[in-house]
Amino acid sequence: MTTEKGFWGSGWTFPPTFDSSNNQLMISHGEENIRQSINTILNTQRGERSVIPDWGIDLNTFKFKKMDANLKGRIISSVKHGLLRFEPRISVENITIEGINGSGSKIGISINYIIHKTNTRHNHVHPFSEIEGTNLVAK
Asked: Does residue 136 fall inside a structural domain?
């Protein structure tokens, strides 16, 4: 049987932050802890954690590649499988890839998910940059 506190989990805020009033390390709880966990999973490359070398998603392998339907599908698949494997408190409903501010070099990965314990829906947008050098201006 999972306790309420055990399900939600808690941990250091990311990035680690200290409370200026008591010099204590800030701790995240509940939905915020899940959101920070998703960000950490998306920002961690495999091999960065020496104790768990297979942890994370290799999003950097998609940088500087031509954005087409095939690449979008590979990014979506990578994110979906990574979150399924490393964040068991959620179910991913939908992932979309969209341009940000029409720059051509930045995309947003929008993740719609449900938290199992509360059955609440959430949306998480992860900015992902430098897909290709289309923002260069010839002089």
From this structure: no
Confirm whether 39 is domain-assigned.
yes
* CATH number, domain with residue 101: 3.10.450.40
For the chain, the farthest-separated pair of C-alpha atoms sits apart, in whole angstroms, at 65
Range of the domain at 106: 4-129
Alpha-carbon span 122 to 47, nearest angstrom: 29
Q: Answer whether 26's CB lies under 8 Å from 17's CB.
A: yes
State pLDDT tens for residues 48-67: 888 988 989 988 888 888 88
